[in-house]
Amino acid sequence: MHHTREIPKEGWADYLSLLSNLERDHWVRIETESADFGDQPLAGRLPLVEIGLEPKGSDRGAVEIIVGRPGGEVTHRILKPDHIYADESESGELECLDIEDADHVKTLIYFEPARAGEEPSIGAPS
Questions:
Q1: InterPro entries in the record, alphabetically (predicted)?
Q2: Percent helix, strand, coil in the chain (nearest 5)?
Q3: In the prediction, which pLDDT does 34 show?
Q4: d(CA 97, CA 84)
């Protein structure tokens, strides 16, 4: 049984910072869903480098997600996030982070288990 909870907006920066530290180098897959474009894959099965909230400047409040390996990173920004939901397993492990923006576009970050013999290390060759 899954449990979905909304992360309060005032707690986004702390939550994303903690998540970035705890889940760094873990495998993730990123997709977007929208009424206009349907489901779109953005990044397939890459190690998480960082996820955070932009604290200042013209992108203040945007969520930035970086995945990949040195020299091959993929960055995705959600400029006007409205809601962040954490979908957790019965044991409390994060399975998906759902970030919804002001235009009703969802960015879904799936946290995937490592496969046998697979080491999700950023320094590993592609």
A1: DUF5335
A2: 10, 50, 40
A3: 84
A4: 7
